[in-house]
Design goal:
26% of the residues lie in helices and 33% in strands. It is an alpha/beta fold and 224 residues long. Strands 1, 2, 3, 4, 5, 6, 8 and 11 form an 8-stranded mixed β-sheet that branches. Strands 7-10 form a two-stranded antiparallel sheet.
Amino acid sequence: MLTLDNIKNYGEYIAVEAPHPLRTFSSAMHNPGYGEYKYFINRTVDISYNPLDAHEEMKQFIQTSSYSLHQTVAMMTAVDMKFAFMDFYEDGDTSIVVLVTTGLGNAVDITRSHEYAHPPRVGTINTFIFINGHLTDEALIQGLCGAVEVKTKILSEHDIRDPQSGTIATGTSTDSICIASTQTGERHEFGGSITKLGKLIGKGLYNTMNRSVESFLEYKKGNR
């Protein structure tokens, strides 16, 4: 079983170290897509970070940090790891661990992004959801889709806007998400919004990401 005790904050990065490989689907920089992975890294970089090859630099970072390139999923963000929010939620025999970091410097409305040139800005929402349960591929992907719905709902409620179009943002241009399951315990064939799993993801991610967004907005307000 994966709990908050599996999360280690090393300052420059946070690592989730699972007891065994998890079934994973993600848009992470390193090892995106579908696979079986044991280590999950959310790394902070300086706002001036601009290597010639970010993927290669990330590989070097992973190896220097003593993680296996083939067993690690890794994301990066300019958000300091002191602003990372993580929680554990459970409903009967199923539980989830949520880890979120939020930056909103490059909020974008994807339905209007074709109308404007969007200059690069710092700002990324990185989301990790770990499920103590046995999921089909369908449930895993439905859970990920539900998590994106939660993110968009929160941005709407906080009136986060695309600075180019002036409309409500649906995310940032560099968001990353990872969902993973232990493949042990209660079985979930589906993970949509009215399923037990979908409801748990909806409640849990909403609570944790809300705290993350509020923390970011408070920080930016204090630095104006």
